[in-house]
């Protein structure tokens, strides 16, 4: 016997079908306990992560998030590759680098729309510095070898005709250890994030030679928009845990929305005291410098992915643009839903 649907049944069925993706997006996280590895949590580079954690936005999404801090992004990535963490809060370009080594990782929410990294030389160690060529044979401090700070330094060196092997890179972290390394003369120059670089700059302890802390500076260094910090994970994790990734993206986008209207006193009240590196005024001065570099809605621009690939390929021989499928390195599906939810 052939069953026919009444108009009312048909309307209800159609409505349920349309609602299904929305219901799925708000489903219970498959994994409520999530381990996130980050390289240099006190840096402004990862401020959205800290804000979302401190204001309880992960908990509000039904997540129990454990954040482990490492010296730099490359170390945080090792934690996920080794299985001791699920998700990396790190630089987007790592997903491109990984694909060139046949490992597929995917970014699913953006935290920063500019790298917020400055490269500077020590006037004490290099009083006669004239051009990037003078860095040959020098020691350059980076958060950790292979990290984003290292990538920016490599790019600046390659444009001046120098190879990474023409200098020595030394991992110094992103906070008090980095300040100490430069001040004690262990390094001659440094590529690092804020608040560290602004603190050194304001005290005349570093002379900035390349700056991606603003959108304009980023455009000058990279020739286009350059996505920075994001949450990324093995593609398999993203596919198996869509509700978990949605909850993580929701929490970050909620944090990004809060940051758009937060005043300096709100930031000071929210971040841990140790992040201020003992100087509240300088911390706020550096926040004002990088504010525009913070993402607005968690979406990664297609143009930005192309800029990152071009930048990496310019000094990384293993990265062959024709062999990279950029579409696999990021998805905006989760951020788009989060943006709609929070009107970011």
Automatic annotation (TrEMBL):
Record-linked Pfam families: NMT1 (PF09084)
UniProt keywords, alphabetically: Signal
Boundaries of every SsuA/THI5-like domain copy: 45-259
Subcellular location: Periplasm
Gene3D superfamilies: Periplasmic binding protein-like II (3.40.190.10)
InterPro entries (UniProt xref): SsuA/THI5, TAT_signal
Superkingdom, taxonomy of origin: Bacteria
Coiled-coil annotated residue ranges, if any: none
Main localization, broad class: periplasm
Record-stated family: Belongs to the bacterial solute-binding protein SsuA/TauA family.
Protein name as catalogued: ABC transporter substrate-binding protein
């Amino acid at each position: 016997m052939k069953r026919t649907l009444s108009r009312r049944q048909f309307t209800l069925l159609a409505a349920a079908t349309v609602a299904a993706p929305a219901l799925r997006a708000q489903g219970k996280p498959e994994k409520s306990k999530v381990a996130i590895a980050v390289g240099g949590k006190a840096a402004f580079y990862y401020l959205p992560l800290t804000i979302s954690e401190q204001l309880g936005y992960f908990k509000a999404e039904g997540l129990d998030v454990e954040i482990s801090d490492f010296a730099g992004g490359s170390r945080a990535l090792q934690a996920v590759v080794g299985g001791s963490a699920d998700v990396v809060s790190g630089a987007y370009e790592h997903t491109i680098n990984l694909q060139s080594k046949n490992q597929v990782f995917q970014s699913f929410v953006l935290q920063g729309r500019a790298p917020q990294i400055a490269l500077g030389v020590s006037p004490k160690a290099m009083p006669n510095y004239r051009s990037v060529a003078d860095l040959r044979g020098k020691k350059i401090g980076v958060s950790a070898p292979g990290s984003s700070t290292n990538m920016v330094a490599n790019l600046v060196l390659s444009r001046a005709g120098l190879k990474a092997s023409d200098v020595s890179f030394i991992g110094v972290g992103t906070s008090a250890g980095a300040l100490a390394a430069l001040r004690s003369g262990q390094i001659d120059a440094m590529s690092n994030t804020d608040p560290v670089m602004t603190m050194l700059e304001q005290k005349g302890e570093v002379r900035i030679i390349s700056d991606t802390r603003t959108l304009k500076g980023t455009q000058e260094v990279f020739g286009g928009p350059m996505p920075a910090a994001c949450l990324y994970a093995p593609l398999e994790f993203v596919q198996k845990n869509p509700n978990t990734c949605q909850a993580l993206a929701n929490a970050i986008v909620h944090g990004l929305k809060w940051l758009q209207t937060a005043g300096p006193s709100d930031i000071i009240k929210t971040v841990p005291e140790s992040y201020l590196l003992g100087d509240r005024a300088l911390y706020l001065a550096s926040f004002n410098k990088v504010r525009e570099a913070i993402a607005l809605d968690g979406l990664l621009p297609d143009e930005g992915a192309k800029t990152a690939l071009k930048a990496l390929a310019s000094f990384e021989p293993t990265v062959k643009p024709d062999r990279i499928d950029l579409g696999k390195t990021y998805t905006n599906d989760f951020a788009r839903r989060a943006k709609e939810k929070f009107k970011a």
